[in-house]
Design brief:
Rossmann fold, 3 domains, 4-stranded parallel sheet
């Protein structure tokens, strides 16, 4: 199912002359870690060190590898072009080869004449085939380019869907190829268009409109609760690709200007358990937008995005609600 491109990894290690190699895997690929380490050591004679901490994307590059390894191999994601390059890091884009063509007739019934195509890096190699199929069946299919945070045409990230918003005026709706709901939900919120999901893993075609309505009701509830808060904890991520320190400072000044208290809190991995001890009424995350939206039910206190804080404080109308993004 997964091609981890271990021959390419071995070539990289040889060119660098590396003796100790750190391997970073996202959760979905950690089952491949031991076999991959064995094979890399066999091919190169190096010593592999597997990084065991959670990994949520290229934004979560574990720069601490420098303390105990010569190079880092990061599996599963494409690099973020706008981040500072590290020549001793290799990003290995892992593709999934699930077939989806048999699902397209059911999707076609739901599609408008002009369709924008988006996906994650795991299926980016299949967008061309999808575009050709749709155009043979009477649809205009458009693939857009994102900003400097995005490497591939048509690629969306959990924090950046500019590949979709860049073409929103050229299409009637979007088709998302992939699994999960967060990415297509983000596209729908950011582009203001309906999204049809073709899910090769679950073997289904669905839309996200009902989920979008549910999430927006949840977000409205969190904002309403936070509007009564007297103290806010502003979370700053220590992950290299999620740091928005200037934004956190701006939010603190805004909160204080409204006569309330604000505290800056730096964290790596954010969880309800870690926040429980803080005597604070509500939290604002300047880290990954998924913290507030995906984990809503896990937090006992409101967790907002920066956009939602503006609504809670009366600086923005609910009608102007937009998806929180990291722009390159």
């Amino acid at each position: 199912m997964f091609d981890l491109h271990l021959a390419e990894v071995a070539d990289f290690i040889r060119v660098k002359g590396a003796h100790r190699v750190a391997l970073q895997f996202p959760e979905g690929l950690k089952s491949q870690a031991m076999e991959s380490a064995d094979e890399i050591e066999r091919l190169t004679g190096c010593v592999c060190i597997i990084l065991g901490d959670p990994c949520y994307g290229a934004c979560d590059l574990n720069v601490s590898y420098r303390a105990f390894a010569d190079v880092l191999v990061h599996f599963g994601h494409s690099e973020i072009p706008s981040m500072a390059a590290d020549d001793n890091v290799l990003f290995v884009e892992v593709r999934l080869e699930y077939d989806f063509i048999d699902l397209l007739p059911a999707a076609l019934e739901r599609l408008s004449p002009r369709v924008g195509l988006v996906t994650t890096v795991q299926h980016i190699h299949q967008l061309g085939m999808l575009k050709e199929w749709l155009e043979r069946h009477g649809r205009t299919a458009v693939i857009g380019w994102g900003d400097k945070r995005v490497k591939n045409a048509g690629q969306v990230l959990g924090c950046n869907v500019t590949a979709a918003s860049s073409i929103k005026d050229e299409v009637d709706q979007f088709l998302y190829l992939g699994s999960g709901d967060f990415h297509p939900l983000a596209v729908s919120l950011a582009a203001g268009k309906s999204v049809i999901v073709v899910d090769p893993l679950m073997r289904e075609v669905r839309d996200v409109e009902q989920l979008k309505d549910k999430i927006l009701r949840q977000r409205h509830g969190a904002i309403a609760l936070a509007s009564e808060a007297r103290s806010f904890g502003i979370i700053i991520s220590s992950k290299p690709g999620q740091q928005r320190r200037a934004l956190a400072d701006k939010l603190k000044a805004t909160i204080i200007g409204k006569g309330r208290k604000a505290f800056l809190i730096v964290m790596d991995n954010v969880s309800p358990e870690q926040l429980m001890a803080f005597q604070i009424d509500a939290f604002v995350s300047t880290a990954c937008p998924r913290l507030a939206m995906d984990d809503y039910l896990r937090y006992s206190k409101p967790m907002l995005t920066p956009i939602e804080l503006e609504v809670a404080l009366g600086a923005r109308n609910w009608d102007d609600y937009i998806f929180d993004s990291f722009l390159g």
